[in-house]
Amino acid sequence: MLKRLIKVALLTLGLVGAGAATLSCAAEANFQDTFNVEKATLADKGSNTYMILQPGYKLVLVDGKDTLTITVLDETKMVDGVKTRIVEEREAKDGKLEEVSRNYFAIDKATGDIYYFGEDVNMYDADGKVTGHGGSWLSGVNDARFGLMMPGKPIVGNRYFQELAPKVALDRAEVVSVNEMVKVPAGTFKNCLKTKESSGLERGVEEKLFAHGVGLLKDGGFKLAKIEVPTRDTSLPDPVAKTFKTTFPKGEINKVDVDAENGVTVYDLEFTDGATEKETDITADGTMLEFTIVVDAEDVPAAAMKTVREAAEGATIKRIEHIEIGYETKDGKAIKLPKTVIRYAVEITKGDKTTEIVVDPDGAVVEPAKWGGTDEE
Length: 377
Known about the structure:
By secondary structure, the chain is mostly beta strands. It has 2 domains: 9-228, no CATH class; 233-367, Nuclear Transport Factor 2, Chain: A, CATH 3.10.450. Helices cover 6% and strands 54% of the residues. It has helices at 238-247, 302-312; strands at 12-13, 42-43, 50-51, 58-63, 66-79, 82-93, 96-108, 114-124, 130-132, 137-138, 145-150, 159-161, 163-164, 171-184, 187-199, 206-211, 215-219, 222-228, 251-261, 264-273, 276-283, 288-295, 316-330, 333-350, 353-359, 365-367. Strand 4 (58-63) and strand 5 form a beta hairpin.
């Protein structure tokens, strides 16, 4: 897998917990090569800090005209007695498909460690014909054994084999940092994981960078440009899904956006709860930053509506959102506010122009209405 070097590690989300695996005395250069885990306890979906194995989750990385698309498929495969999740990587060069790999992973729910059970590879020529299967391997076949793709709790200094397929694939990784700041087209992320990857079969070292609650940010020249999450809670990272389902047990997600807000990975979920439209922002570790509900004018304090009507100057008052803010993001962290902040965001239209005003319950303007164009400000 060193051919793409962490190839699919991109979806990874965490490192190994201390004591979750034992270190072999024969391990090359002290890279962990034996993992004492009960196969019966492994699951085919879930997430850890730096890798997501939820069906439908997708990352798109770009390098000029080249693309690397990593998708967690709604498919599984039995490998070495374990039901594994299939993660597909499609690499295209200048628009033409060059390589497709189907990678097999399983997660230890107790530790968050994600193990790698092999891959099936197809290489393509310029005409789209399969030319080879270099790098393919499966745990339990030809003396190959599963490796650790991403530990549940990354610790600087961790060194482990990701692949253990003699003469075929011997990729390995070392954790060198867990507090990197990384800027990619998808956003600027803080407290990122950096690993150095190498191979027991070839020379060279390559760095990979991963964001909390997202996965792979940089792989060689490839940089994350797009994150796609299906509109279902089962595709969210475990902490995000848990907070959402606990807080809104009957909520049905309509839209998911993932953003980097002051260095923090935030999942913006638009959903319906019964007949009511709602929205919430939840960090990758499950902290709910704010909650929004669509309300009617009679539900807004009189002082707030007075300010809104004065700003509207006869224009039409449309969508009104009641917003409750419990946390703010700053320097890569979610910080709890002394008390919950209430805001009202109100959409106003006049002819073909649309704007928005944000006020507090007492009618003080937080963000003024700006009539500058036909699009919402």
